[in-house]
Amino acid sequence: MVPKMTFGCAAIGSVYRPTDDKESILVTKEAIKQGLNMIDTAPWYGCGKSEKVLGEILPKLPRKSFYINTKVGRYLPEYEKMFDFSAERVIQSVDESLSRLGLDYVDIIQVHDLEFAPSIDQIINETLPALQKVKESGKARYIGITAYPLDILRTVVERSTVKIDAVLTYCHGSMNDNSLQDNLPFFKSHGIGVINASILSMGLLTNRELPDWHPAANQIILTCEKAKAFCLENAVDITRIATHFSLTQPGIDTTLISTASLGNLKKNIQVFRNGITEKEQLISDDIMKQFFKPLNNATWGNAEVVMYQEKLKQAVKTSLQ
Where do the NADP-dependent oxidoreductase domain residues begin and end (predicted)? Predict the structure, then answer.
């Protein structure tokens, strides 16, 4: 049993900006203290940095006081070294993560961004059976899969001979794209827990400058810009209403929030516990009606995979020159 809001650790791995490990430790301790007792990390987050920060905290706590999830499959920033879904690497990765975390087991071991695998067949025939062996060894309690495209998650669930206990998907339980709702009955019918991530759509629903790598199509970006401008005109913080929107969606087992700022953590917890004001709710309803419902849950599909494949080809070509 986990709370509706839990703690994602991409931020403390310096994925979004340079971070200070001392503050990250304080933020993580405060999150656990406030009851966000499921923690989600990955080797990809800072090439193990996130797991190392957690390794300074978790071994000192009673093991029953928290749940910890990590991942396999995505590792290094170099394109030719980024992904490896082979069984051998999976087994090795789990041991590396447990060493960094200072723990004997994790609660959920997840396949990270499986849409980037050379083929779904590898996930079905190699990656997931390797995770089943990890589970049988006692190094993980449950098996999960993560991806952006919801249809790929469904395909893997339908084809897998290994019991999948959890799915994690991102940017689909947000104001601009709430298509996760349409898929909940499928996952629930298979007895799968659902983890919702990146509720601010990787920066689309914040007042920060959008990173140039963002895969969203111009239509989505422009619509979000109009919604942000509308909020500013009405003196409302779009991040608050976007956070509240996602946290109050029915049927989702838990929603990750990720931050390396103690102040931002407290703001998220405040929204989680106290909700938003009547004015904020009215503005939320307005921007959904004016801007986001007409988007009809537009996604960026396989744009990230296509971008990765192009970069990988360039990297391989350069290495051969």
Answer: 4-280
